[in-house]
Amino acid sequence: MKRISVITAALLAALSVSAQKLPMREYVDNLMSKMTLDEKIGQLNLLPGGDVTTGAVMNSPLAQLAAEGKLGAVLNFKGQDKVRELQAVAVKKSRLGIPLLIGLDVIHGNQTVFPIPLAQSCSWDLAAIEEGARIAAKEATAQGINWVYSPMVDISVEPRWGRVAEGAGEDPYLGSRVAEALVRGYQGNYGKENAMACVKHFALYGAAEAGRDYNTVDMSRVRMFNQYLPPYKAAADAGAGSFMSSFNVVDGIPATCNRWLLTDLLRDRWSYDGFVVTDYGSIGEACIHGLGDLSTTSELAIKAGTDMDMCSKAFIDKLRGLVESGRVGMDDIDRACRRVLEAKYKLGLFADPYRFCEPKRLKTDLYTEEHRMAAREMAAKTFVLLKNEETSFGGRRESQCSPVLPLKKQGKIALIGPLADNRTNMVGCWSTADTPELYSTLKEAMERAVGDKAQVAFAQGCNIYADEATQNGASFGRHIPRVDDAQAKAEALRVAADADVIVCAMGEMAEMSGESSSRTDLTLPDVQMALLKDLVATGKPVVLLNFSGRPTIMSWEAENVTAIMNVWFGGSETGDAICDVLFGEKSPSGRLTMTMPKTLGQIPIYYNHLNTGRPVPAGTPVFRKYQSNYIDERNEPLYPFGYGLSYTTFEYGKPQLSGTTMQADGKITLTVNVKNTGNYDADEVVQLYIRDVAATISRPVKELKGFERISLKAGESRDVTFDINVDMLKFYNSDLQYVAEPGDFEVMVGANSRDVQTLKFTLQ
Ligand code: BGC
Predict the structure, then answer these.
(1) Nearest residue CA, atom 10 of ligand 1?
(2) Is the residue at 722 inside a domain?
(3) Beta carbons within 10 angstroms of residue 632's beta carbon
(4) Which domain holds residue 343?
(5) What pLDDT is attached to residue 2?
(6) Pocket residues: Cβ below 6 A from ligand 1
(7) How many domains does the chain have?
(8) Cβ atoms of residues 376 and 573 within 8 Å
(9) Nearest CA to ligand 1 atom 6
(10) 39-62: per-residue pLDDT in tens?
């Protein structure tokens, strides 16, 4: 009997290979006509493989479930052999031989690790971002993965929230362009080297109150549509194969059970046709949110438009009963099952379930020289130079004062800090790479970069936090060695004493940002700050390389340190990439995509805010009574959105507009000349902002509407042009209609959101 069913399965599998020649709809219709209710429900079940832990540990008998047709997909499952084996069970042993989706959090690269997404967005280089995703998909698919849980497109203005590390920052326009680039990069044309993208976390997860992970979200529809939803929509329009619902509530209803969100908006308004998976265990969590028992939340979720249950074992356990009792209709089950099967069809899994299990690709496609170069190039583009003061140190005479960076490869460089000699930490959150021992530490890279031209003297100097419990609370698995803080500091000061320049590698360790890593204090942790102060007190030039997964607060540093470069978490090639920039092979070209606050009390702080009725008049030197400000701090951030320095200087000419009136079906063009007036070849990010001066709702003081990253040789200049059309003037009004309203507009161009030149035009 058993043998017969194996043969039947093999026959069916063979049939399905030829059947994939049918168009998707027909193919899926055909398959579904053979499926029992249990088999359909089985397709909606996603369970973890346990190779990476991203939620509650579950030990499920995956092979048995696959054989019984009770498993549609697995996640956190690693190893091509293991994937092939499990896929073989699903295909050969289950009655209908339906292959599995194999998912993994491939968030910023795979074996070759690219910078964290927040850092990538600071490159403003969409082609490089797309290429990074293409490489990530190539490496992932070489190992059997066919579904990646990226892009994460949650807009956030909350640096306390650790997950800002995973997104593209605060801006809906840039966030949308990045989202599209990532979807294109991962999915391509669904070839053998492409994986299906999963857009997350739908929706509004980045607006968790007080920046505390998983916390309540509550916002107006107008804000939602104008500020938070655009990147999700852009990713849907770019054809992303799947969406993941978020943990938070939207209008009081957990996203996974929110019919308005998953059906009215996503399906009916946006015409999205991929499938929706929950986040880890979120049907179960809906019970804890207070929506009822697991049967109730399962019913709500499937009716809301959730198609696949990640790790709640809710659909698999509850849907049959719900159908039998009439609470859930077959149409809901069929709809969800169809979408999951269509995803498998798009990936070509019916034609070849082992499509992503080619053994030879393990040798040719992982951590290759080409991939590493791409990661290194990209990392160098993400570093944001925040300050670079002149100094006369380093053997230069007083009269030869020049900015401390780039460093000369000469003399003695003291490299100090708990992040300078650690190889696994630099990849940041969400790395699932297997071979971090292959990466260089910053110390190793620096020694290599200077060769025998300079001396690199290293001292760890301190722990991440003085308190071991705090440090280890943030650290699971990538420990920075604990040292005696007093002794380590004494050693660091000895090393610094006869150095020409001090380079500090300090900041957050990887686990201090990412999921479940919210912070209430964003300054440099205690012992690191104490050491930094002592190093500054030596009077020598101090370069701070600030590692972080979020904007941190560096007001003291901005006053006192000679140079600051935010290096985020740059991925596997961080060490070399930092040296490329530090020693001047490349000029820094990263520009902030989240505002850097001066103090915690300013949060949330973002550039595209509304004007209020009482804005502080420009140029006001101090606090003003009855204006929208604080008595103890100015409104301005430490560093604005779009900000970043270079080793060269750029001069913007007077911008010109092709006209001062625009017809609804026309366009006008802004042209600005940008000149590299310094001594280094470098890249600049030219930014275009627009303000709708008078409209039916209050509109932001400015909104990014275009940008161009350009390369200019020293002395070179170029005209940069932006075409402005009516679509760039549209917004969602209070009836949530997407409209452009006639009237006056300001258009601004400049090197960041603060330093702009403004022109005006009228939309007729
Ligand atoms: C995270 C998701 C992730 C999922 C699967 C969840 O905890 O919120 O971003 O994709 O786990 O690992």
Answers:
(1) 149
(2) yes
(3) 8
(4) 1-102+332-359
(5) 43
(6) 54-55, 75-76, 105, 149, 200, 279-280, 515
(7) 3
(8) yes
(9) 280
(10) 999 999 999 998 888 888 888 999
